[in-house]
Amino acid sequence: MNSIYKNPTAPIEARVQDLLSRMTLQEKLGQMTQIERSVATPSVLKHLCIGSLMSVGGSGPREMAPTSEWAEMVDNLQKAALESRLGIPILYGIDAVHGNNNVYGATIFPHNVGLGATRDAELAERIGVATALEVRASGIHYTFAPCVAVCRDPRWGRCYESFGEETEIVRNMTSIVSGLQGQQPEGHLKGYPFVAGRNNVVACAKHFVGDGGTDKGLNEGNAILSYDDLERIHMAPYLDCISQGVCTVMASYSSWNGMPLHASHFLLTQVLKEKLGFKGFVISDSEGLDRLSHPYGSNYRQSVLFAISAGVDMVMVPFRYQLFLDDLTYLVQSGKIPIARIDDAVERILRVKFAAGLFEYPLSDKSLLPTVGCELHRKLAREAVRKSSVLLKNGKDPKKPFLPLNRNAKKILVAGTHVDDLGYQCGGWTATWDGKGGRITIGTTILDAIKETIGGNTEVIYEQYPSAHTLASQDFSFAIVAVGEAPYAEFGGDSQELPIHFNGVEIINLVANMFPTLAILISGRPLALEPRILDKLEALVAAWLPGSEGGGITDVIFGDYEFHGKLPMTWFKGVDQLPMNAVEKSYDPLFPIGFGLSSKGEVL
Ligand code: GLC
């Protein structure tokens, strides 16, 4: 008789219980283990019953590998896993946080801070749908997204991964979960994981909870606030994700009032699982257990004890899996971790795998390959870039708007470090973990887009680093200067001063002193902008980290589309004001959260 767990028409909970009842302790612990693809040999997958694989940022078949090679790589690993005694398929996860950003040629959407500027939940959902297709095309089933952090301080290196500073903005944008996983049908059991089909992916709401509220914005720091404020400000978006059937939640590296999230039974089990009714699985962050320190882990075995007991169900090891399995086996066999905790974790993992249809569709669907970087998705990304661009100034004299620019001007200067750099406009989590400059994938830089937009008789002069000498002898109708931040990720982005990188202020100064100038800031957050700089500019646009479709910026600066964006973060006057959120009495921003102009100079 065919096993119940192999029967796709059987109820998920029956399949879960049937399979669980057949599993040995080693197989159960294997399912709780997520390892990096580079250590996943066929033998390890077959004999250790590993539950999940992942790619750390940039880890794939080879540099600039096409999607088909990703699909082949994942399928080969999956086939090895299906050779295991019970044939439990692996769940392969990756950080597809703004498109399938590790994969060459994938559509790169604006990072979350830009999506927050759109305030457009329906757009976010459509981006989720497109991202899911491009992820499944690569054979991958699971994305560690969305980050639903509420970033209260732009000094945090992961500000750009947050939809914004206010809970309501983030709550609104969690609609991306329904895009990634598919729309949950009416009557779907609350809190239970949902994935519509093989064109959708398992999503991951992260990083639970309070990652964006740490003291001084320090990454992996300590959020010091009452439980009521933690729940009101940082936990609310998780309720929206759970109500959409989010399959997984990732624990945060950070702490709450000194308690590391990875060791917090109160928050991971009593609140998330019991109070909020979350029935998917909790995954640790990468080496999240290794980062526990005394008294939550004077050694790794202690850390395993704290984290699994707190409610972590799957551990993103991702390399030292034998040590993890040895320690966890000891802890269970010595009774320090009850088998009931293991069974709860494995039930949750299996529940997600059955909900995701993994047993029915373990391998990639080659018919999805043409969706990767397709015209439709690039148009969607371009729409998102348009809607995320925030017009902060338009005309030294508001009665004389500077934008839209004249596309038939005689001669224009296009200058700055970020005007022709695809890697800079994509930012971190693109091609590699913390991103890099240059033509890192297929896309359109701002300069490419300007050349596509302007009239045939307009001369465009490009100067990455303009000098007074080269400019003095020239007469330009106007100048467009794009500057901003170099790509970064996590700790690499923590900044107390929030400067414009590569002497961007000097570039703006030099050009704006000589010609009417529009400045475009390519950054993951508001940056330090002195009023004297602002006064010199005719116009200023915050374009965040727009991704591969730079044409969305020319769409609005040349007037083919109206500006739509509103600040998702407060734009401070000076870093000494931080943290500064609209609810404080001392709220004295350069531009308040929600600010944005139309090209006619009206406040949106
Ligand atoms: C990182 C990040 C997390 C990411 C994970 C896997 O350290 O904190 O957001 O999903 O590791 O790359």
From TrEMBL:
Keywords: Glycosidase, Hydrolase
Glycoside hydrolase family 3 C-terminal domain: residues covered: 390-598
Domain of life: Eukaryota
Claim: Repressor is one of the keywords in the record: no
Signal peptide as annotated in the record: none
GO molecular function annotations of the record: hydrolase activity, acting on glycosyl bonds
Residue span, Glycoside hydrolase family 3 N-terminal domain: 24-352
A family per Pfam: Glyco_hydro_3_C
Protein known as: Beta-glucosidase
Organism encoding this protein: Cinchona calisaya
